[in-house]
């Protein structure tokens, strides 16, 4: 039983990273993103608090057999190992987060304060992604996407981005992929991606913070 649980844990983590470097026209996992952009006292970004909510199919697959005490619930403790493996695996894909501050590229440290929550058939991964380098005053631009399109990320319709501790003169704008305006399940959507071009601009979710 322990071996099977370990394999399921690895499989769930692999679902988040298996597509690295492989161009896939159809995503295999869908994740809804909420984020809090945290600023330090000097007015520069210091980290991102994420909540990624996965689709029901992935959520069911990832949590199969995780209810070890058979109480019909998935506690934070029961999901702790799965959370650990997932955040460790995300390092290989740069946490699907690409940021710039001024002319420089943001450098991220290893995630902290991570855990998983299973609620209403949806598995949500919470974690804080610290910024360890490249942050400057004046704003930041963040892109969230999987270059391989194995995971289809999308900002939540509500509370997709919040600013925490930001200077009073900071505002933000959320930009969603233009191709997301139509039905994602249509073949025309997927075919438009497979024809090439700038894939990042087609699938990236962006948060642009400006501090004047």
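Sequence proposed for the structure above (212 residues):
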């Amino acid at each position: 039983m322990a071996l099977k649980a370990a394999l399921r844990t690895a499989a769930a983590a692999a679902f988040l990273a298996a597509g690295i470097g492989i161009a896939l026209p159809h995503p295999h996992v869908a994740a809804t993103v909420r984020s809090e952009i945290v600023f330090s006292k000097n007015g520069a970004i210091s980290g991102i608090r994420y909540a990624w909510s996965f689709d029901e199919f992935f959520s069911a697959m990832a949590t199969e057999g995780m209810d070890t005490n058979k109480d019909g619930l998935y506690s934070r403790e029961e999901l702790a190992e799965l959370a650990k493996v997932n955040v460790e695996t995300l390092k290989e894909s740069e946490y699907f987060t690409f940021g710039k501050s001024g002319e420089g590229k943001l450098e991220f440290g290893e995630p902290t304060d991570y855990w998983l929550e299973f609620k209403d058939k949806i598995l949500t991964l919470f974690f804080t992604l610290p910024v360890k380098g490249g942050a400057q005053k004046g704003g930041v631009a963040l892109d969230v996407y999987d270059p391989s399109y194995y995971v289809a990320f999308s900002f939540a319709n509500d509370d997709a981005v919040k600013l925490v501790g930001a200077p009073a003169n900071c505002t933000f704008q959320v930009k969603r992929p233009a191709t997301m305006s139509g039905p994602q399940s249509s073949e025309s959507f997927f075919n438009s991606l497979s024809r090439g071009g700038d894939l990042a601009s087609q699938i990236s979710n962006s948060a642009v913070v400006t501090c004047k």
